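Entry: OsmC family protein
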Amino acid sequence: MKETMSLSFPCGLVTKTEMGDFTLITDYPEDRGGTNIAFNPWRLFLASILTCQGVNLAKYCREHNLDYSKITIKLESLVEDNKSDPFPEYHLMVEIPEDFPKDQIKPMTTYFNDCPVVNHLTKLNPIIKTYMNNELISVKERLKEDDRHGS
């Protein structure tokens, strides 16, 4: 399925991304030249990880008639340099109520960890090709496991 988003620049560093019936706005903090009216792209990226796993957790609970209304999830980014850290680490901190069925924790975790966003980051080797006026000008590929370890 081919999905196309389009991006425009309403003002300053604000971006407006449209896809179908939906619009997404991003901006940068004031100390980085923006106006701080929306998530910056990095925080949006982190939110994608968190929300993808959260939706999968909710789907699992719904399928198993489990109350998930009191579950909270936080994402901690341990990345110091998000431009060059070769092994970025993120912690997903899930808080469940005391009365949550213990026998459901492991299968629920397996289920919600299999979200498309995390799989894209950890299992796949995405390729991003940039075209300018229909001419290919750059290709970015994720390093394969052997390349990351210097083999």
